[in-house]
Prior knowledge:
alpha/beta, nine-stranded mixed sheet, six-stranded mixed sheet, 8 helices
Amino acid sequence: MENEILRRIRLDYDAERICLDLSLSLEELFYYINNINKYEMKVFTKISSNGKIMFDFKRQNYDDDVELKVVNGTTSFVAIADPHIGSAHDNVQRFDSINTFLSKNNIKTLVNLGDLIDGPVHQNQSRERRIPDLETQIEEAIKLYPYIFGPNIIVLGGHDLEYKTANGYSINKALKQYRTDIKTYSSGVGILKYGKERILLCHDTDDKWIQDRLRRKDYTMVLSGHSHCYKDATNEVGKGGIIDIVAPSLSDLPITNGIAPGFLKIDMNYERFELQEILISNYTFIDGKVYLVGVKSYGYSMTQNKEESYERTRNNSHSNKKGKKHRYY
Length: 329
């Protein structure tokens, strides 16, 4: 099987085509690629501009921007944050819900904004862990994290970067060794580009280094996690206000306000290859099902200067208060 895979990589087949040709799942394909990397040669994963998973024999820079082509119509991706695998409040079954949602909506880009794992118990720390052992948390993350036929991006958070086993093993090393299908930003910050639109991906915007980057004023939007509940704002640090979005947590860790857990679907609507509108759809989980909570729209006018162009144009909120029903997805 490894030889058949290598032959198709040399013919410049993408991952989906290889899987169709050889009747493999994506997980099975990367199992064989990991075997090739152990015993034969190094195969590196890259993301093409049309969003396909490709392979190369040249080493890729892990911190390169992800650049995708603009298409007329709608380009969509899903953003999640703070799964905290190993916490007493995690819910790894929600990865299956995310996979189902991606497939049902034909979305092939997934962004994780950090804190994939929870980390070990500290001395004098009262917080409970479902999995107290760091190595077991890492193993579960590698095993359960979704496989998708497209850009699968993780920006590591503080819990991911801080903890290592006694022999120096970490979630960062494990992802790069065993989940080469994932684009991992170990620097804690990444950039997703759709044409001239730049989206800053990070775990926590309160970081001074992130604030310094936002002052460069050339980002359309910043996506972060850390707070564990959905927030949206226009950050006046940037040109005319960068759209500043905080994704809700995928875990059930307690929050002080807002709705959690959940995830975001982000639609970028283009006409004649120019961005017209960004829709932020906030989803939550109730009794194992996915429900739409609300939608925020940011309009973009081609006739205005970019620094004046972003404006919140409508707020279609679907309240979750008693007596009002969520829309089920």
